[in-house]
Design goal:
594 residues, mainly alpha, MetI-like fold, 2 domains, two-stranded antiparallel ribbon
Length: 594
């Protein structure tokens, strides 16, 4: 059970019951002697630096190499000159920007609109509304893309088949740029929804009341006050979704490539999958993609530079006012119901329907007699798929444990010590945020192919775990830092003065108090590792394949029902792991939320 702060203080006092040893009055690296805690912290800092810088440095170096990984390789600008002067580059740039910008605007507009209804209106059924919006975000990206193909494919799409029977026309051709935008927008709108409701909840209603008294109508108050105060949060969501979309692999590959619509990510995949692999082109595209993501993060940081002028929360308590919708209360609730039916229930049922058929067919009364569980049985008959499931469980658990251990010590260094240069460690921890998963995968692939290491990790599950830890360090750090800040320094000082070693204090005081944050971060990582495709797509082999890649491979090979059955099992497996951790945490009195 997580001890309250008073118990932690008591533990600190009890630690002094042993014979007192030499006391260091400074925390962390301020002690001059090379003691065990210094060694641990130095090792952690070195590991974090290695994980953050290796893929970035390798990607940059390979882009300046002619014939990368060959004996005749030499330094050159030829990769940039050849690709940047090609019409293909400008086509890719234009398509990628149109795709990412339109998707980000659509997802943010939808998410913010729903967020305002949820946070600032008197709309009924809000608990259902929250669940209805969040479900699409929980579904793994590869499954969500497959589901929409099953719904809106010109030939086999369920929505298109029924709409064509009624009107003689198809509803939507998913294999198009607007089809890609639709799927990504619906998948990312919940992110804008979550970010916007926190902003809308924090706006002081007195400002809106003052504007209303001054003569502004409801729309004027929303445009002049509410929207302007929420603008930094809205723009932050817009830029974050832009980065996610322009670096996303699943929709670009599953929907864009069959439609001959290529973006940066799909071109990187095509360059490395070609024979011989065009590493130079992949590296240059990676550099451009990295530059776009860094530019997005820079713009996002600038939106909070003058954040004080948007601040409305003071020491005075307030409750956000709810706008009265009148006769539109239930129609607005109906919007959330329509969202749930079209964007959550529809895709889930499409995947489930496909998994129950020997060969995919559009739903009809005739097909009902052919439903079978054979696909689910076949999943367990193929050793490669069973191995993929085991690999995913091992990779998810290992990634969660390693990431939370590293970020716990890293958060201690940045929050609880006065080590000169600790800001650099804080910066390195968040470097992977600017690197899309596919870029990290490419960088790690190049490094472990080219580096003169005494061992080979290529094709092993260990290499995938290294890649996953790299991508998840920033998110683990977010959880642990929030918990570390809340722990008073006096608890550690009391234990040290009482004569306990630094490691004993860390184990007896810090870890129990950090347990809610550690469990929340671990669960988040566990769920997202099962969704990973872009980071792993270049690093796996048949022996190190994971379930997300197995679903993608089955789909690419035309085994639609098997892919759907495995996808359903993956979702159920994640829910079981989530429920098990929640049950264990509840038994131990640990309260957490992701």
């Amino acid at each position: 059970m997580t001890p309250p702060r008073s118990d932690a203080a008591a533990d600190a006092a009890k630690l002094g019951s042993r014979s007192p040893g030499p006391v260091c009055t400074q925390r962390g690296w301020q002690c001059l002697s090379l003691n065990p805690n210094m060694i641990i912290l130095i090792v952690v800092a070195a590991i974090v630096a290695y994980l953050a810088l290796v893929p970035l440095a390798t990607l940059l170096i390979s882009s300046f190499q002619s014939g990368f990984l060959s004996r005749s390789s030499h330094w050159t600008l030829g990769n940039f000159q050849h690709f940047l002067s090609s019409p293909i580059f400008y086509r890719l740039l234009g398509t990628s920007l149109i795709y990412a910008v339109c998707t980000a605007v659509a997802a943010t507009s939808l998410g913010v609109g729903l967020g305002w209804l949820y946070a600032r209106s008197d709309m009924p059924a809000k608990k259902f509304a929250f669940v209805a919006v969040i479900i699409p975000f929980i579904i793994p990206g590869v499954l969500y893309a497959i589901a929409w193909i099953l719904l809106c494919s010109p030939r086999i799409g369920i929505y298109n088949t029924f709409f064509q029977a009624l009107t003689g026309h198809t509803l939507l051709n998913i294999y198009s740029l607007h089809g890609m935008i639709l799927v990504e927008a619906l998948h990312n709108a919940p992110l804008a929804f979550l970010m916007s409701i926190s902003v809308f909840f924090s706006i002081d209603a007195s400002l809106e009341e003052s504007a209303s008294i001054a003569g502004y109508g409801k729309f004027g108050v929303f445009r002049k006050i509410t929207l302007k105060l929420a603008w930094p949060g809205i723009l932050g969501a817009l830029l974050l979704i832009f980065i996610r979309v322009i670096s996303g692999f699943e929709v670009a590959q599953l929907i864009g490539t069959p439609a001959h619509i290529f973006v940066f990510v799909s071109q990187i995949y095509a360059a490395i999958q070609s024979f011989p692999p065009n590493y130079g082109q992949a590296s240059v595209i990676g550099d451009v993609l990295l530059l776009l993501c860094v530019g997005g993060l820079y713009l996002s940081s600038r939106t909070t530079r003058n954040r004080n002028k948007y601040a409305t929360i003071t020491g005075k308590n307030f409750k956000p006012a709810l706008a009265g919708l009148g006769k539109w209360r239930w129609p607005c609730a109906g919007i959330f119901m329509a969202m749930f039916l079209a964007t959550a229930l529809g895709p889930l049922l499409a995947i489930l329907w496909s998994s129950l058929l020997p060969a995919y067919q559009v739903p009809s009364m005739e097909v009902l007699s052919r439903l079978t569980f054979e696909n689910y049985l076949n999943v367990f008959r193929y050793p490669d798929i069973v191995r993929a499931v085991v690999n995913s469980i091992v990779a998810a658990l290992a990634t969660g444990v390693i990431t939370m251990i590293l970020t716990t010590f890293a958060a201690y260094i940045t929050v609880k010590t006065r080590v000169p240069g600790r800001w650099l460690l804080d910066l390195l921890v968040f470097v992977p945020i600017a690197m899309p998963g596919i870029i990290i995968g490419v960088g790690i692939l190049f490094w472990y192919l080219a580096a003169p290491l005494p061992f080979s990790l290529y094709g092993t599950l260990t290499l995938l775990i290294i890649a996953f830890v790299t991508t998840h360090i920033p998110y683990g750090m977010r959880y642990v830092t929030a918990g570390m800040i809340q722990i008073k320094d006096e608890l550690e000082e009391a234990g040290l003065v009482a004569g306990a070693t630094w490691f004993t204090v860390f184990r007896k005081i810090y870890l129990p108090l950090l347990m809610p944050s550690l469990v929340a971060g671990f669960v988040y990582i566990l769920i997202t590792v099962f969704r990973e495709v872009s980071t792993a797509i270049f690093l796996y082999t048949p022996n190190s394949q994971i379930v997300s890649i197995a679903v993608y491979t089955l789909w690419e090979n035309g085994a639609f029902p098997m892919a759907a059955a495995l996808g359903v099992l993956v979702v159920l497996l994640v829910l079981v792991l989530f429920g098990t951790i929640h049950w264990i945490s509840k038994r131990r009195g640990i309260s957490w939320s992701i």
